[in-house]
């Protein structure tokens, strides 16, 4: 008996993920070095919009360990709706959409501030054969994710770190009891965010996981009234 090639063994999925990884390896160090050097001369830290422009050519893909973890979570949870803050070139979206396809249904709604990156993410999803499971909204996530088609089963936070907490608070009314929050780039997370998900009484059970450069993994224990 033969088994259809799906998920992370799908040649189209693997080819696009490999391409994004090669782009990141080739471009990201120089792009980020220039971005930090430019912003260092500014009197104030860059805004999310300014940072998006500085990093427009950086792929910034999710680490394969984190991407595989997302795939595993989604295959197990079988969510109807996954939401992503910070799509970039769409690597994490591809991991999620592949799992949704292999589950037989579900949708991921991503948000990306930079229009060029959003277009590249859509192109990558199309080439991976996963466009039917994903929607990428372009613009400020606090506006683009304000309206959703149903309860959020899993939330991935992987965008501008200072917006993690505002985006989470925006989505808390839609985050169902038992919903999951995966927050990438643990060393860069603002303390007000980690304090919020770790503090007793805020409705989460949260811990650090050593995947990639570290993630904060949180379970919503109770939906906001």
UniProtKB/TrEMBL annotation:
Pfam families: Methyltransf_24. InterPro entries: SAM-dependent_MTases_sf, SAM_O-MeTrfase. It comes from the Bacteria. GO terms for biological process: methylation. The keyword Methyltransferase applies. It is an enzyme of class 2 (transferase). One of its GO terms (molecular function) is O-methyltransferase activity. CDD domains: AdoMet_MTases (cd02440). Keywords: Methyltransferase, S-adenosyl-L-methionine, Transferase. This is Class I SAM-dependent methyltransferase. It comes from Streptomyces nigrescens.
């Amino acid at each position: 008996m033969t088994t259809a090639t799906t998920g992370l063994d799908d040649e189209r999925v693997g080819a696009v993920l490999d391409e994004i990884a090669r782009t990141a390896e080739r471009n990201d160090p120089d792009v980020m070095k220039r971005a930090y050097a430019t912003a260092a001369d500014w009197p104030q830290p860059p805004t999310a919009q300014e940072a998006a422009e500085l990093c427009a050519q950086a792929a910034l893909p999710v680490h394969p360990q984190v991407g595989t973890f997302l795939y595993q979570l989604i295959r197990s949870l079988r969510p109807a709706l996954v939401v992503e803050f910070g799509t970039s070139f769409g690597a994490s979206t591809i991991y999620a959409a592949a799992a949704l396809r292999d589950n037989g249904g579900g949708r991921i709604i991503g948000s990306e501030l930079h229009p060029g990156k959003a277009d590249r993410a859509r192109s990558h999803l199309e080439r991976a054969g996963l466009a039917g499971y994903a929607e990428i909204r372009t613009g400020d996530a606090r506006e683009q994710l304000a309206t959703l088609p149903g309860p959020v089963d899993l939330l991935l936070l992987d965008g501008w770190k200072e917006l993690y907490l505002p985006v989470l608070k925006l989505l808390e009314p839609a985050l169902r009891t038992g919903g999951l929050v995966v927050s990438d780039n643990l060393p860069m997370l603002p303390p007000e965010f980690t304090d919020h998900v770790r503090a007793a009484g805020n409705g989460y059970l949260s811990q650090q996981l050593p995947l990639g450069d570290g993630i904060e993994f949180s379970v919503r224990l109770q939906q906001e009234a």
